[in-house]
Amino acid sequence: MSKPTMTFTPKNLTLWAGLSLSLMLPLTVLADRTVSYTYTVHGQVETIDGPRVDVTDVTTYGYDENGNRNSITNALNQTTQITAHDASGRPLTIVSPNGLTTTRSYDLRGRMIQQTVSDGTTSRTTDYDYDAVGNLIQVTLPDGNSISYDYDAAHRLTGLEDQLGNRIDYTLDDMGNRLSEQVSDPTGTLTRTKQQVYDQLSQLDQSIDSENHTTDFDYDPNGNLTRTLDANLNPTAQTYDPLNRLSQTTDAKNGLTQYSYDDQDNLTQVTDPTGLVTSYDYDALGNLISLTSPDTGVTTYTYDEAGNRLTQTDARNVTTSYSYDALNRLTGISYPDTSLNVSYTYDQGAHGIGQLTQM
């Protein structure tokens, strides 16, 4: 039996091979960014082949006889192994490519109660405690510090406290909105307070800080913020188009900034209070390919198949280039003056898999 495969391209067009479909919807694709999938005979994802053609960007997944995922190998051939699972398929032991081993344990309800990360020499353990109804009530960190959590009868967070006695308490309304926040030190002295008032739609109507400074908020029928009045009575206003996209803002000095968008909701133009216009152009995949500014002139951009920016060319025709590894991490920036070039190196330090170790 052949393994089913699937190829995904933008705009939700899906082409299938190895499986029969009784219905496919016609769809127009403006541009391609193809990601291909293969599956095991049991329908589990086996490989994901990314859109890039300049490198091999395939991620591979392995499974045990029970169908539990037991390995993940990325495009750089770095493998994470899940070597043990509990009866419900939850991972118990995870070995990362850099040699770190993570062990987890769960209670009878499937909640993680302990996690230990070890490099073979030292271990760091975090413990989790729950109340009878499943609320997380305490986290104890590897250094022994802890944070405790309080809840009301509706299981909503009402307070938290560290091991030194520093507290934050919340007062909630019937809808769960936070009406007040009180921060106190270990002696019980209030160090900061905040009050909030909500309208009947649970929209923030008023915020009052520790010094009794009040900020007011107004909204349109769609819930968009239309006006803010700060404690100094400085108003700012926003209006929106029929698609609820911000179309203009008015600052406290009555300066008007206007915004325009294309059919894909990309911002295409900003007109500032002085009438200066900044324009933005995009390709069919939504990548910014051109920016025209009164200050910097025209800047153009190019991208690879995965959407990583490859070049930036400014109004002086000066080009900056970018390079990436198979995991789409930035590996280099090249300038016309090569003495300014920057390179980024990963995975060279001890236990440094996936971490930036040199620049």
From TrEMBL:
The keyword Transmembrane helix does not apply. The lineage of its organism: Bacteria, Pseudomonadati, Pseudomonadota, Gammaproteobacteria, Chromatiales. Keywords: Repeat, Signal. This is Teneurin-like YD-shell domain-containing protein. Transmembrane segments: none annotated. Residues 1-31 form the signal peptide. PANTHER family: PROTEIN RHSA-RELATED (PTHR32305:SF15), PTHR32305. It comes from the Bacteria. Gene3D superfamilies: RHS repeat-associated core. It comes from Candidatus Thiodiazotropha lotti. Residues 31-170 form the Teneurin-like YD-shell domain.
